[in-house]
Amino acid sequence: MQNPALGRRRLPTAAVLASLPFWASALVVMPVFVQAPWVRHQPFSSCLFGLFLAVAGILLSLNAERSQQRDLGALILGFSGSWMAGSLFWGWLSAHPVLHLPVEAFALPLAVAGLNTRWRCACAFYLASLVGTVFTDLSMAISGVMTLWPDVVTATADQAPVLLQKAASQVLTPKSLLVVILAAALITRLVAECRSRADQFGDGSSAWAVATSVLFTTLVIDGVFLGISLLAPGLSGLI
Fold it and tell me: The pTM is what?
């Protein structure tokens, strides 16, 4: 059936839940609710879980009979790279924000080299996540929020919410708001471009669809995190 208002076919709920973009978005959200509290208390086991994800993703992709399952395995492999980088940084290096991007980019050469292979979905997830991190970190650096980062993550449980709220409030200054709006506009433009390419390319459409979901979900998560940091900093997951 066609939806006359949208002019496109409405997918059944089961099909949406089984789609690659859905799982790409879910994996972007997962670190907020699972990794953040885990890595604060057990960073080593969190890193080991990243290795488990990598092995599981490889095995699923190599042994799956359907292309969708192979792509899902590759997606899990790409997510494992982001998970391990996050575990390493937030577990031991969180007081040094200048190291955040280099740590997140540890698998960049492999991801670029694998874009034209069967692992393109893994590479698309990892690279899109990295692009989102670049925008977030640059926005924090330009707005001056990054200078407050070490104090927030090393503060006591009583002080951290107040410091985080103060850092988030700095984003509301005119200069910072302009930076954030510009970054959001650029990400939105990238999302539109990735979506367009997903509609055009055959074999590579799944990778572009993954990149679209990752970038869009990253934008939403950043917005939600800013709101929580302002209104309920204790629930942010960062502290």
Answer: 0.90
